[in-house]
Amino acid sequence: MRTLTDSKTAIALAAGLTLVGALAGCSTTTSPTDDTADTTTPDTTEETTAPTDTTDSGDATYKDGTYSASGQYQSPNGTETLDVTITLQDDIITAVEVVGEGTNPNTIRYQGEFIGGISAIVVGKDIDEISVSKVAGSSLASGGFNAAVETIKADAAA
To answer: Tag placement on the chain: N or C end, fewer CB within 10 Å?
Structure first.
């Protein structure tokens, strides 16, 4: 009788380990607060504003001024767009404005969180040293922002 109980225990243990292994292989690496895990595929739509001040301080890689561009990214709700305006002074971001074009409630929420936190991350930094990945819980909007920044850098190149 003891061997029957031991056999059942061994089978139950093996089945449990197999189930755990199968479930681990199917799991994602999404954090519990980020319900928008998706592959970000940034794309840009250029919308450049002429520089407001084209003085160059010698060492700067980019012309001083205010530049705008749109960046697109993929979310679970489809293609989303952020309009980004950056003011540069000696390659340093002195001001940033981001406007979201989302219509879905989740998109509006995450774009709002991104917009609310982006200034604290990039203002005062060299434009070549920023690469935004996640802002205030929003990870996908950064793809659109980074795409817009690349367009702005190309437009502002001295």
So the answer is: N
